[in-house]
Amino acid sequence: MTKRETDLNEIKRLLAEKDSDGVYDKAFGFINFYTEDEEILLLLCQIFESDWHKAHEDMARAFQGISNPITAETLFKVTFSDFENYNWNENYPMQRKCVWALADIGTDEAINYLKQIEQQANETIAAFATKRLLNWESELGRKGPLSQFENS
After folding, report:
1. Is 36's pLDDT higher than 50?
2. CA dihedral of residues 25, 104, 128, 86 (deg, nearest 10)
């Protein structure tokens, strides 16, 4: 069995068993190792959207680091999620990280998600999106590699 097959099976196990500790131990490494593997990233997106772990902020940061457009829809969805463990903080750090990740993806789809967040989210979260949209041009150097082709 290849490393990829072993890792794929482990990600599926994390999902099936709702292994919160495993998410902390392994998911970030998987995100950073399989930066362009859509099958694996989509499974990791399923974990990210789940409410049985508390690793959302760290996963959002990891997704920002790889800036893969396959994660954009999930980042958008999680921005509007009402995970119980994130209701304690009116500064919305998880949502802020999702907005930054979308901005760094930099595709047309990501900018459309930011515009929807700006229009539909609460005032604080909408302000995160507004700031990223206002700074779009000055932050072009941070955008993912695919955004160069889509936004030209």
Report:
1. yes
2. -10
Residue 87 CA to residue 83 CA, distance in Å, equals: 7
Q: At what angle do helices 38-49 and 56-66 cross, to 10 degrees?
A: 150
Structure tokens belonging to residue 104: 């760094």
pLDDT, tens digit, for every residue of 87-115? 556 789 999 999 999 999 999 999 999 99
DSSP character at residue 121? S
Q: Are 96 and 136 in contact (CB under 8 A)?
A: no
Alpha helices in the chain (DSSP H): 3-17, 20-22, 28-33, 38-49, 56-66, 72-79, 93-105, 108-120, 123-134, 147-150
Global confidence as pTM: 0.90
Alpha-carbon distance of 106 to 34, in angstroms, equals 20
Structure tokens at 146: 């695919």
Domain ranges, ordered by start, for the chain: 3-150
